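for ur thesis appendix - NAD(P)-dependent dehydrogenase, short-chain alcohol dehydrogenase family. copy paste whatever u need, i formatted it the way the template wanted (i think)
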Amino acid sequence: MSTLNGKIAVVAGGTRGAGRGIAIKLGEAGATVYVTGRSTRQEMSPMQRKETIEDTAKFVTDAGGHGIPIQVDHTEEKQVEGLFNRINKEQNGQLDILINDIWGGDPLTNWEKPFGEHDLQDGLQIQKQAVQSHIITSHYAVPLMKKNNKGLVIEITDGTDNTYRGNLYYSLAKISNIHLAQALAADLKNYRITSVAVTPGFLRSEAMLDLFGVTEENWQEGAKVEKHFIASETPFYIGEAIKHLALDTDVNRFTGSVLSSWQLSEIYNFTDIDGTQPHWGNYFEENVN
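the 3d part is after this line
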């Protein structure tokens, strides 16, 4: 396919970061994108960030698609059920793409405290926001895909394997996202529904730019604070990766796989917005391991 015109997508957790980049790129290909999250122009989420679902939806429309913002807390089952009931009515039961990108765990993760000292309630909240919410969302999305005997479910994670990621609660959530994708692939193999997990590299998100006191225009200066930031990538890079997966008529060959932005950039030959092809996998092996 060369276009996603007529395709219906949900980007759960599309307010900012990878979710925003993915939503915009799906819109660029012509998709109708339901952008969900907690942050609206009228109500700031506990993340206390300025980005909103309305802004993302506008960027989707400006890119060539149709962005529809709907405030949803994906840990609340009734809100998720209402979302997919609305999509069922508005789109005559059609849902082609689900992106599970709900996270919100950064302010809940204390990297300096080991298990037993880390705040237990914060750790459990990470599982609720980043794992339970994904299960709830897929539970209500997948039946629409099963009725149409096709679909693409993508779990956004961090990392490509089960290696410990430096904090038990963070690690458990991200590895769980991978297994969710693999388990869905097995359960849904008879319905032509593809399920994969996809990870970005070092994501140059809005929050990370703010943390290092830089902008996208002078982001390299952030490497003075964190040297590995020099190998970072924009949210549009993983957005390109997801767009190409959605356009691939043979995407089912990947079902059950854990994929990365850098791996997919080689498969589909795309670049980040500055024309480069960041490869966090190679960089990590050479400079971090």
